């Protein structure tokens, strides 16, 4: 395996409004230094893709952004959201996650009905009004492009849906919470091309109202949907730029090798 | 007797002014599992006329009964043995109330071919001197001795009357009359001993020194293997407890209930026995 | 939904969110509450365990501290008659026969029951889940509720005569005890094994079958391997039940404090001695303390078993790898 | 070919083992039912026990068994649930947690008479509960906790971690995630634990002799005031359960029909346990479906 220098980096600053910023983010699993010094800025109402080989630290990084790594890792550095460093013990993580929501690699609907999957968290957050709930169910399912397929079966178990439908339900579940930022961890990796295409459509729609950060190992996917792309390698962010620049004119050797398939 | 039976069947006999002096007394009797049914039934009858008294009768074993009454944790300690015979009990602190007499008899499996045993033979069997029924006049069959649990009242009585200080052989030990009855009736060549009331048609109770195990023979001490059932209190009992103990001793209980449960009334006894086993005529 | 909004409105919202981020919310309180409850419960359980362990230990140790019985004599002696003194004026408290018998009965019962329990568990999970859950499971769970006395009496009326006819002797002994205990621990081991086998994810099986493995290879190499820790827990609980059982065993094992010479001679377990003797002794006296010492030994043996089974189970267990992401 | 043969042999062995177990089950249940059912009648179930005459029933004992079970579950289930949640969700993976687990498992091997005596000295005497259903229920809690805690813990752990992450990522508190998502998914496994421990409550005798007592005073089934001494709901009254009753008539019973009572009571007990298990499964499945919309 070819080794690349970690000293050479090309990371741009975002000229437009920033939804989320990390400064010198580092992650340790015990003694294992899994993420070095990641400083990135994420633009508002844009899709940012995080790419890199397996084990490059992109998922680890993503999971830090809404503090899902708290229980298993030590995270150092700053995560700035709304002028606030949310990587701090004083911060209420549950509030963080209401604003920064996450969709996982494997679809994980609750073992409940389709409707309950969406309303469960809403009701726990104090939304009791039936009309409001029904409105949110319909709206979120529509924005996840699932409404037409399930509108007659809302009380059926979510587990009876296909994998692609389940994943879109998980997206709808997040959207219903009206978060600010959507984090997606390889949301289409377990799905077939048709489902993948649907999810990509959905994301393009959601981009109008949400900031989206997506981890993907599929470079075509990144080039199709992302406005910005960050390249991760062995726990370092080596390059971050507009997507078309990354794919047409990468500044770093490692990035170039990775996207041209000469990696490793 | 008729009065008692009538009392059993109806719940109406509640208007009684006798107990009005004491409000809601609680009496707890704990100990001997053998004595428990008698006291429980008597207590239940007694409470029908004394609704202010609440009597709870439980088992747990004679040792438990004696140690708990000694500590003052319960009102009455039911025991199969004299407090003097139990190690760790200060007998002089306790007051003995004898409420019944229980006769015990050796029992054998049908088919050992023995109708009578001498006391010496019995001793020989339980000390391991005889190993085969042939040696005591029975069939050619191995003797299987089932003893009772050491420390139990039954065993203390039996060993006191039969073994005269000799040491019993190490063998099977069972702690309940029911189990012994079952084992003796199903296992060939088995001998053990039981309270009279547990002898049934499936097992054989041989006579000893040609004396048959009957209530009459116990009453005049021709049959030597018997003991008292005791209810101990710590010091003199209080008024309510004393009243209940008097009831236990009354002919209402002694002449009917005691006999129905297979005991011998203490009123019928022509002799008395003390803690060291010495028998005197009354 | 949100689109572009005026700057002031956005600023107001932002301040609100900032505040929310810094302050505890309902969710935080819920979590404190939940954590508190679960900590209280585990503390309570811990206290219960500690209190009963303390209780048994203090009483069990009294034999050696107050009555000055030699620990080694207690563990290696073969004469049990706590009420009597031997020729040297020492109390006869040799617990070895009971220790050996308890050990034999428990291990044998668990050894015999485990293959049967696993067979039934595999049948109900891998071969015929439909029939299995519909009929077998309720019936097996039924067995737990049958009182020991009933097991004892069935053992006494069926198994003891059977052994007597087949092998001679009285029929009472470790063999009879093992058979009765085998039936008694079967439901515990089976039920808990079923749960642990069921929890092996379906895709493990699919993956293995897809690779061309036969059903047995899948069961043997994948399912059982993955379920090992749970099955071991099941065996531990089964053995625990066998250890603690008294009323049934005491009826069929003969209950004689003799060193067992084979599986057919009457002998006595720690528990049956304890149960028969405890009601006839007085608290604080040597015979009573000696019985508590038996209970203490029972606990220690159970502890050793537990640790041993866990140790064996650690080798070849894959559970830790599955749950690494937790 | 070899592996195929092994497969067939193994399947055969499993069938053989299952057949053997089924045989044992049929024999056991058949034995109990055949010896017992002829003695069961409406009169037997609805009349009080007799201590020396034939013809006594098991009404009070039957009720006591059920009541004791309910009380025991009310006490032990919440504690076991809380501890199970702790062990599966909060407990750090260290030696201390291992120690707690081992201690709980060792506890379950205690002979019931030890737990009974402990309960007697502590609850009946020290805490002055007297011989009572309550004391019995607390003593049985000692029995139940190990198995119940363990089976709740295992059931919770079997719920995939993805479910927890889903809940947490929506901003739900851990507690809500556990109670609202993980617990319903774990319900079937938890139910097994409840049924097994309920079985032990039904079948336990030795521990109850010293705590709940072995007498069944006459109670009124029309008195619904749980604080009245004569009420059947009073948790402070002594109560002989069916298993204790079976033990009593078998060991010291002097009624002429002791054997019949014992076999009849055993048969009734089995039927009651069966009904309880089926009802518990039914209710559990219903709740599971309700909570998970599983069809």
TrEMBL record, chain A:
Recorded superkingdom: Bacteria
Gene Ontology biological process terms from the UniProt entry: phosphate ion transmembrane transport
Keywords from the UniProt entry: ATP-binding, Cell membrane, Membrane, Nucleotide-binding, Phosphate transport, Translocase, Transport
Keyword DNA repair among UniProt keywords: no
GO cellular component, one term: membrane
GO molecular function: ATP binding; ATP hydrolysis activity; phosphate transmembrane transporter activity
InterPro entries reported in the protein's UniProt record: AAA+_ATPase, ABC_transporter-like_ATP-bd, ABC_transporter-like_CS, P-loop_NTPase, PstB-like
A Pfam entry, by short name: ABC_tran
NCBIfam families, per database record: 3a0107s01c2
PANTHER family associated with the record: ABC TRANSPORTER I FAMILY MEMBER 17, PHOSPHATE IMPORT ATP-BINDING PROTEIN PSTB 2
Protein name in the entry: ABC superfamily ATP binding cassette transporter ABC protein
Source species: Lentilactobacillus farraginis DSM 18382 = JCM 14108
Taxonomic lineage from the root: Bacteria, Bacillati, Bacillota, Bacilli, Lactobacillales
From TrEMBL, chain B:
Domain of life: Bacteria
One Pfam family linked to the record: PBP_like_2
UniProt topology in membrane: Lipid-anchor
InterPro entries named in the record: PBP_domain, Phos-bd, Phosphate_ABC_transporter
Localization per Swiss-Prot or TrEMBL: Cell membrane
Sorted UniProt keywords: Cell membrane, Lipoprotein, Membrane, Palmitate, Phosphate transport, Signal, Transport
Name listed for the protein in its UniProt record: Phosphate-binding protein
Residue ranges of coiled coil: none
Signal peptide: none
Biological-process GO terms, alphabetical: phosphate ion transport
Domain annotation PBP: ranges: 21-250
Protein biosynthesis recorded as keyword: no
Composition bias type Low complexity, residue spans: 10-24
Gene3D superfamilies: Periplasmic binding protein-like II
GO MF assignments: phosphate ion binding
Assembly with partners or alone: The complex is composed of two ATP-binding proteins (PstB), two transmembrane proteins (PstC and PstA) and a solute-binding protein (PstS).
Cellular component, GO annotation: plasma membrane
Region of interest: Disordered: 1-24
Function: Part of the ABC transporter complex PstSACB involved in phosphate import.
Keyword Signal: yes
The family this protein is said to belong to: Belongs to the PstS family.
Automatic annotation (TrEMBL), chain C:
Membrane topology: Multi-pass membrane protein
Localization in the cell: Cell membrane
Source domain of life: Bacteria
Major location category of this protein: membrane
Key words of the record: Cell membrane, Membrane, Phosphate transport, Transmembrane, Transmembrane helix, Transport
Span of domain ABC transmembrane type-1: 99-309
NCBIfam families: phosphate_pstC
Function: Part of the binding-protein-dependent transport system for phosphate; probably responsible for the translocation of the substrate across the membrane.
Homology family: Belongs to the binding-protein-dependent transport system permease family. CysTW subfamily.
Annotated protein name in UniProt: Phosphate transport system permease protein
Organism (species): Lentilactobacillus farraginis DSM 18382 = JCM 14108
TrEMBL record, chain D:
Domain ABC transmembrane type-1: from-to ranges: 62-280
GO cellular component: plasma membrane
Gene Ontology process terms (BP): phosphate ion transmembrane transport
Keyword Iron: no
Transmembrane segments: 12-34, 66-87, 99-123, 129-148, 178-198, 258-280
SUPFAM superfamilies xrefs: MetI-like
CDD domains per UniProt: TM_PBP2
Taxonomic superkingdom: Bacteria
Keyword tags: Cell membrane, Membrane, Transmembrane, Transmembrane helix, Transport
Membrane topology: Multi-pass membrane protein
Record localization: Cell membrane
MF term (GO), any: phosphate transmembrane transporter activity
UniProt similarity note: Belongs to the binding-protein-dependent transport system permease family. CysTW subfamily.
Protein name: Phosphate transport system permease protein PstA
UniProt organism field: Lentilactobacillus farraginis DSM 18382 = JCM 14108
């Amino acid at each position: 395996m070819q080794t690349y220098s970690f000293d050479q980096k090309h990371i741009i600053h975002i000229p437009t409004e920033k939804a989320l910023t990390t400064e010198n983010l580092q992650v340790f699993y015990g003694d294992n230094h899994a993420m070095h010094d990641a400083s990135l800025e994420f633009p508002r109402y844009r899709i940012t893709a995080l790419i890199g080989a397996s084990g490059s630290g992109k998922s680890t990084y993503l999971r830090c952004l809404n503090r899902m790594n708290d229980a298993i890792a030590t995270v150092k550095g700053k995560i700035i959201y709304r002028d606030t460093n949310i990587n701090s013990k004083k911060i209420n993580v549950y509030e963080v996650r209401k604003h920064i929501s996450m969709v996982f690699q494997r679809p994980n609907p609750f073992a409940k009905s389709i409707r309950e999957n969406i309303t469960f968290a809403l009701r726990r957050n104090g939304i009791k009004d039936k009309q409001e709930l029904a409105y949110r169910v319909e709206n979120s399912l529509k924005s996840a492009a699932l409404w037409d397929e399930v509108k007659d079966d809302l009380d059926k178990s979510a587990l009876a849906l296909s994998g692609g439908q389940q994943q879109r339900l998980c997206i709808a579940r997040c959207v219903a919470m009206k978060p600010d930022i959507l984090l997606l961890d390889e949301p289409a990796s377990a799905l077939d091309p048709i489902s993948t295409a649907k999810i990509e459509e959905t994301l393009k729609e959601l981009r109008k109202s949400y900031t989206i950060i997506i981890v993907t190992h599929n470079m075509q996917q990144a080039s199709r949907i992302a406005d910005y792309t960050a390249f991760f390698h062995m726990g370092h962010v080596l390059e971050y730029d507009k997507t078309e620049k990354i794919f047409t004119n990468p500044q770093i050797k490692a990035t170039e090798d990775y996207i041209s398939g000469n990696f490793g | 007797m008729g009065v008692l039976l009538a009392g059993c069947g109806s719940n109406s006999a509640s208007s009684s002014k006798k107990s009005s002096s004491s409000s809601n007394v609680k009496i707890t009797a704990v100990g001997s599992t053998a004595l428990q049914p008698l006291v429980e039934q008597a207590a239940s009858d007694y409470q029908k006329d004394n609704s202010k008294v609440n009597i709870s009768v439980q088992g747990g074993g004679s040792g438990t009964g004696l140690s708990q009454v000694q500590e003052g944790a319960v009102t009455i300690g039911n025991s199969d043995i004299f407090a003097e015979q139990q190690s760790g009990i200060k007998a002089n602190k306790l007051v003995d109330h004898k409420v019944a007499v229980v006769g015990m008899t050796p029992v054998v499996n049908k088919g050992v071919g023995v109708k009578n045993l001498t006391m010496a033979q019995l001793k020989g069997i339980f000390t391991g001197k005889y190993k085969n029924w042939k040696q005591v006049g029975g069939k050619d069959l191995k003797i299987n001795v089932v003893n009772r649990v050491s420390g139990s009242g039954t065993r203390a009585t039996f060993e006191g009357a039969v073994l005269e200080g000799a040491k019993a052989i190490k063998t099977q030990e069972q702690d309940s009359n029911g189990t012994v009855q079952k084992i003796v009736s199903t296992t060939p060549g088995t001998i053990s001993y039981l309270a009279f009331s547990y002898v049934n048609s499936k097992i054989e109770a041989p006579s000893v020194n040609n004396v048959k195990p009957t209530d009459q023979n116990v009453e005049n001490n021709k049959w030597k293997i018997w003991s008292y059932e005791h209810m101990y209190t710590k010091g003199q009992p209080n008024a309510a407890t004393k009243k209940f103990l008097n009831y236990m001793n009354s002919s209402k209980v002694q002449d009917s209930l005691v006999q129905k449960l297979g005991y011998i009334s203490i009123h019928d006894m022509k002799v008395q026995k003390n803690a060291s086993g010495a028998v005197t005529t009354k | 939904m949100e689109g572009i909004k005026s700057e002031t409105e956005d600023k107001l919202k932002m301040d609100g969110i900032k505040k929310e981020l810094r302050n505890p919310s309902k969710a935080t309180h819920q979590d404190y509450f939940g954590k508190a409850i679960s900590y209280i419960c585990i503390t309570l359980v811990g206290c219960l365990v500690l209190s009963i362990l303390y209780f048994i230990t203090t009483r069990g140790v009294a034999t050696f501290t107050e009555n000055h019985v030699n620990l080694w004599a207690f563990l290696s002696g073969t004469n049990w008659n706590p009420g009597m003194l031997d020729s040297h004026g020492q109390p006869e408290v040799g617990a070895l026969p009971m220790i050996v018998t308890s050990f034999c009965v428990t291990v044998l019962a668990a050894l015999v029951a485990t293959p049967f329990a696993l067979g039934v568990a595999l049948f109900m999970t891998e071969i015929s889940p439909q029939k299995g859950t519909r009929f077998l499971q309720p019936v097996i769970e039924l067995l737990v509720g049958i009182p020991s006395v009933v097991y004892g009496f069935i053992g006494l009326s069926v198994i003891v005569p059977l052994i007597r006819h087949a092998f001679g002797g009285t029929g009472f002994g470790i063999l009879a005890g093992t058979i009765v205990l085998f039936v008694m621990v079967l439901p515990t081991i089976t039920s808990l094994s079923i749960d642990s086998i069921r929890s092996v994810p379906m895709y493990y099986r699919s993956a293995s079958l897809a690779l061309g493995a036969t059903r047995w290879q899948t069961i043997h190499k994948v399912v059982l391997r993955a379920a090992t820790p749970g099955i071991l827990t099941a065996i531990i609980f089964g053995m625990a039940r066998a250890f603690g059982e008294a009323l049934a065993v005491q009826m069929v094992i003969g209950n004689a404090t003799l060193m067992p010479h084979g599986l057919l001679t009457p002998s006595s377990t720690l528990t049956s001695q304890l149960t028969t003797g405890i009601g006839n002794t007085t608290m604080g006296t040597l015979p009573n303390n000696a019985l508590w010492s038996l209970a203490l030994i029972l606990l220690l043996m159970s502890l050793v078993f537990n640790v041993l089974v866990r140790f064996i189970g650690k080798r070849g267990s894959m559970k830790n790898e599955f749950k690494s992401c937790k | 070919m070899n592996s195929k043969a092994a497969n067939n042999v193994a399947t055969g062995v499993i069938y053989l083992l299952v057949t053997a177990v089924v045989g044992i089950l049929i024999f056991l249940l058949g034995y109990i039912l055949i010896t017992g059912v002829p003695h069961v009648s409406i009169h037997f179930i609805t009349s009080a026990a007799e201590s020396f005459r034939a013809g006594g029933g098991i009404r009070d004992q039957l009720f006591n068994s059920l009541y004791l079970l309910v009380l025991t579950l009310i006490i032990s289930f919440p504690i076991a649930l809380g501890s199970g949640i702790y062990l599966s969700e909060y407990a750090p993976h260290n030696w201390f947690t291992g120690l707690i687990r081992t201690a709980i498992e060792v506890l379950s091997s205690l002979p019931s008479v030890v737990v009974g005596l402990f309960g007697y000295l502590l609850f009946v005497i020290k805490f002055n509960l007297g011989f009572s259903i309550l004391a019995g229920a607390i003593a049985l809690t000692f029995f139940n906790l190990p198995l119940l805690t363990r089976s709740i813990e295992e059931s919770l752990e079997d719920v995939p971690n993805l479910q927890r992450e889903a809940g947490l990522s929506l901003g739900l508190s851990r507690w809500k995630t556990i109670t609202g998502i993980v617990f319903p998914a774990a319900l079937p496994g938890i139910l097994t634990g409840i049924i097994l421990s309920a079985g032990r409550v039904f079948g336990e005798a030795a521990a109850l002799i010293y705590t709940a007592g072995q007498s069944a005073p006459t109670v009124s089934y029309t008195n619904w005031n749980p604080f009245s001494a004569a009420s059947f709901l009073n948790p402070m009254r002594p109560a002989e359960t069916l298993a204790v009753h079976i033990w009593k008539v078998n060991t010291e019973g002097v009624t002429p029909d002791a054997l019949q009572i014992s076999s009849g009571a055993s048969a009734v007990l089995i039927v009651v346990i069966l009904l309880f298990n089926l009802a518990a499964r039914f209710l559990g499945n219903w709740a599971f479906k309700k909570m998970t919309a599983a069809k």
